[in-house]
């Protein structure tokens, strides 16, 4: 600061009013310029974003090819009895031995029997099921089972449960 005597008083030397006005106008000009720059960049962003989008088109999905369904396999998985049991008379293999171990739901159309074939462990067979040797389980009674070439044909073999020993008295 420079001191300069004026009319007997000492005062500080100040800058001219024009210099103060120039410095005071720069800050708002910079702020206004930055705001306009931000507005322009924002508008440009949205214009480019809108111009870059195409009309909505759903993604193309390839049409699934026609699937071939094995209805016999599906029926087997769901527990259906194979229809091969009603085919023309299947040849019976001679030398096959059957042994009845038990019956379930005797005299019912959907009964089952435990049958051992050729000394193997007994397996459950439902009425209408094909056994080894080409025979079909035709029906189940209280103490026996009938096997034949088809479900509706004549019975070829009749199996019966072994007699139970009498309980000692």
List the helices and strands and how they pair.
Layout: E1 3-6, E2 9-12, H1 17-52, H2 71-77, E3 98-104, E4 112-117, E5 123-126, E6 136-140, E7 144-148, E8 155-160
Antiparallel strand pairs: 1-2, 3-4, 4-5, 6-7, 7-8
Can you describe this structure?
- With 169 residues, the chain is an alpha+beta fold.
- It folds into two domains: 3-52; 78-160.
- It has two helices and eight strands, in the order E-E-H-H-E-E-E-E-E-E.
- The chain has helices spanning 17-52, 71-77, and strands at residues 3-6, 9-12, 98-104, 112-117, 123-126, 136-140, 144-148, 155-160.
- The strands form three sheets. Strands 3-4-5 form a three-stranded antiparallel β-sheet, with no helix packed on it. The protein has a three-stranded antiparallel β-sheet with strand order 6-7-8, with no helix packed on it. Strands 1-2 form a two-stranded antiparallel sheet.
- The longest helix is centred in the N-terminal third of the chain and has 36 residues, at 17-52.
- The chain is rod-shaped.
- The protein starts with a strand and ends in a 9-residue tail after the last strand.
Task: Name a few traits of the molecule.
169 residues, alpha+beta, three-stranded antiparallel sheet, 2 helices
What's the short version?
The chain is α+β, with helices and mostly antiparallel strands and 169 residues long. The protein has two domains: 3-52; 78-160. It contains two helices and eight strands; from the N terminus they run E-E-H-H-E-E-E-E-E-E.
